[in-house]
Amino acid sequence: xxxxxxxxxxxxxxTATRSRLIVRLAALLVSYSTxxxxxxxxxxxxxxxxxxxxxxxxxxxENALLPGSANPVLSYQHVTQANNLILDIxxxxxxKEAPDIEIPKLIAKYMEIxxxxxxxxxxxxxxxxxxxxxxxxxxxxSPPTLANLSYGTSTVGIIRxxxxxGKEAIVLVSPYNTQNAGGIxxxxxxxxxAFSVFxxxxxxxxxxxxxxxxxSDSRFGDHTSVSAWLNDYHNPNFIGDASSNRIFxxxxxxxxxxxxxxxxxxxxxxxxxxxxxxxxxxASNGQMPNLDLLNVVHYLAVHRQGIRVRIGMFGGLxxxxxxxxxxxxxxxxxxxxxxxxxxxxxxxxxxxxxxxTATLASSIYSQALGVPTGPHGAFRDYQVDAVTLELSPRFxxxxxxxxxxxxxxxxxxxxxTVRSVNNLLEKFHQSFFLYFLTAxxxxxxxxxxxIPFAFLVAPLPIIAASLFNLTSNRNxxxxxxxxxxLLITHTWSVVVTLLPFYISKISDLPSTHCxxxxxxxxxxxxxxxYIVFGSxxxxxxxxxxxxxxxxxxxxIGLCLMSIINFATAQIGALFVVPMCLFxxxxxVKTNNSLIRSMVMTCNLVMAVLGFPVTAVALMQGxxxxxxxxxxxxxxxxxxxxxxxxxxxxxxxxxVHLPCWLLFLHILFHPCR
Length: 672
Prior knowledge:
Blueprint: H1 2-31, H2 33-49, E1 56-57, H3 76-95, H4 99-113, E2 117-124, E3 151-159, E4 168-173, H5 184-201, E5 210-215, H6 222-234, H7 242-247, E6 253-262, E7 276-280, H8 291-303, E8 308-310, H9 315-318, H10 321-340, H11 350-369, H12 377-380, E9 386-392, H13 400-422, E10 435-439, E11 442-445, H14 446-457, H15 459-472, H16 483-503, H17 511-533, H18 543-564, H19 566-582, H20 593-609, H21 612-624, H22 634-643, H23 647-667
Helix pairs in contact: 1-15, 2-14, 2-15, 3-4, 3-5, 3-13, 5-13, 8-13, 10-11, 11-19, 14-19, 15-18, 16-17, 16-23, 18-19, 18-23, 19-20, 19-23
Protein name: GPI transamidase component family protein / Gaa1-like family protein
Pfam family, one: Gaa1
Transmembrane segments: 21-54, 446-470, 482-503, 515-533, 545-564, 570-588, 600-623, 648-668
């Protein structure tokens, strides 16, 4: 008993010692809050710039995938049959008056020859209208109106696996568009490529998962047809037409989705020597498929079929002089680090750093936008891993011999991917779901790319505590007076969020007029709130407490956004953290006039650049070029975001906009 009491007493003292150390450390950080903020911000920016150096080579985590373990079986016989389908489609497109009706029938006929179960799926063009009640979910399907009588027809074929139990399925999607006369060769080749693989799989004895081939009619966009089919697949409508529900055939739970289409590029630049496949992986709100799926495609394309793999890259950054200088600096830093310790392998050629930075920026931006980069995004809404492959041939598709060779390569790539997924006994789970890509075979994992964000956000609670300590000695409850401007600001941001719902109901209103109406309505709402609640500059509202409350609210917003879409929070932190840290009233008195002038200049610049409209235009200018960006296009940008239910729209108006308004309140505070 005495031993137990002694151990308890020792543990109690140790706990008290740790608590005192934590309190002292916190007090020390608060005391030197300015120095800590500067160090953390610089560390965050440096960590963001060195992310391409910290990228790892991709590897396959799931051993059961076994890519390339079996020799491809797809032969010229399969692609010759597919070529016959291509020629038939092109003849119908040239001769028939209604190719959008005849082509689905032709595809179904070819499917039935292979013994597949077939049916047609009709869908209408969705009405893209903002509705706040259905922001994070699909709004209920409304019946087509007189203005929406146009339908699309997708053709679906199902092969039952001879070694399966019907509980799992692999989905192949080949979008095509018969109304695009200039791209009929590519659309027909996409269908032919899918048919060659489908023909092989219809005779495969090793299949353990059902195969679903969706020849999706993409007249309303590639995503629309796939999304409509997936919605009906997972949400059968038993209330409507019972006969149509019986016609709609289903297979098992989807293990994977592979979307592929053929695209002829007018300019190939330095990729003329080989066929190219471009991978698109970003889904809605920063969701990504399991990295193993991309690794399988990359391995089979490069090491088995000799196809070059590409992913999104910002060409403007590749040509940027500033990025090239950074590349040279990083190359010298890597050499110096390796001279200190040969195990520090940070050395990277400057050209590789430039390409890695451009690719990383594209990956972060595509995820932050929250909009799918292809039809595969519809699969992620149902937690199905999927990828879109855009195959571009080296030579023209009009030449039959080169077309057959291209179909053989592309078909074997799809065949190998299906074989690997067919080997899985469970869903993708071994590899990463949270990552940024710096190259087709390099990635930055979640444990690495969180470091810059953590450095940027870390000073916020420290600064807030420091500001509170400066004013708490007089009256610890004075911070409650700042609740009024905080309430006004966030109430106004909610009004601004909902205004587009009513503006969008006004028919035939140009985008510029919608933008001006939104701005005028928002300004009027803010004035009304000031009249109702009073001025935010009362004698009880101190600017230090207002800044502390602003920092606290922004910290909460950024942390919540990092859970929903980390890329949005990362980019947002680059704008709002400087506003939070350097916010200072214009009328505040300081001993050093030079420092005061510099701070005021920075504040005025941040007041302009931190405005959401300017911030969005700045991001688009860096990516697309400033000559093509207009502030009046902000309405179209926001309409694009809410049309895809992107959480970035909510971040801009519920986190970024209130932060900017509170920043202005501090900037013009009377400092009584």
